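Checklist before submission:
- one chain only
- standard amino acids only
- sequence pasted in full

Submission:
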Amino acid sequence: SYSSAILISYTKRISHLFTQFHTKERMAVSYKIAGIDWGYSYTKICINGKTHIFPSVIGLGCNISFQMHRRQSIDNINVVTDQHYFIGNLALEQSKIFFHSLRQDRFDDPATDALIKATLGFIMNGDGELRIVTGLPPKFYVSHKNKLVKALKKPHTFIYNGELRIIHVTHVQVVPQLVGTMLDLVYDDDLNIKDETFARETIGVIDPGFGTTDLGVFAKLHYKEEMKDSIRYNMNEVVTLVRQTLYNQYGVERDDSLSTDMIVRSGILPYEGKNIDINPIVDWAKKTVAHAIANHVQNVWINKWAIHRIVLTGEVEKHCIHSSHLL
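Returned file contents:
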């Protein structure tokens, strides 16, 4: 997806910076650099230019007595921290109780700590040093940055898929999530400017995600604090509208947002042995939320006449709120 491409591109650029600033350390110590997005819906990891994605779901672990086939590594993540947890697709398949947090301050939660450790375990083949690039919604960047760094930058001891792991996170680079988009638009992998137009103009960026829709403006690459925002009109609102409509029309009740999100992305509702096309419902919900986003943008970007162009990024290109709904 486009959001994954942004993550890959941004990680390459930060990796380049880390290499410049830590050349002597790099010669003495072996370490990995990873770009990680602990999204409200999915966790995205970029390692050596390759992206890995799994649901941001944490479930209570259990004993699995029999398996028909061997799972792929990304579908077989389990960790032991304060207790035994299944992560991602394994949690959705096997856990009776699972957690899927939409809280802004979820990084101090034991279950989220298990998600963090599971991510670190997936990245590292064994013990070692890790440097992380990650982001936060613009509105919560100042208030949550230090909490996130504190949760990450330390030794992490846990059991990953039956093996004891000790992973030292030594460097954490946290940025407002929209910065990755601008870096991708303006710079190449060696941090040379590839597009002078974006570097000269004032650019508005809209990033509709699952938990927040983030807004930001960059004037000649300078981040304008007074025009940033993170709002509640997002993909979760689309999912909520669809879930309510499915209950009203078919009596189908979904208890969690993530399972409904999967139905929304497929556009198909399995119902009494039939596959029902719910794309008209999904399209209506997207248009409704997109209208609310556009209305909010009009209110926040009062000086929108000074913006040369608007860039839609993130989940816009991946079954979320289509750009045609916003424009």
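Reviewer check: Confidence is low (pLDDT under 50) at residues 1-6, 19-29, 316-325.
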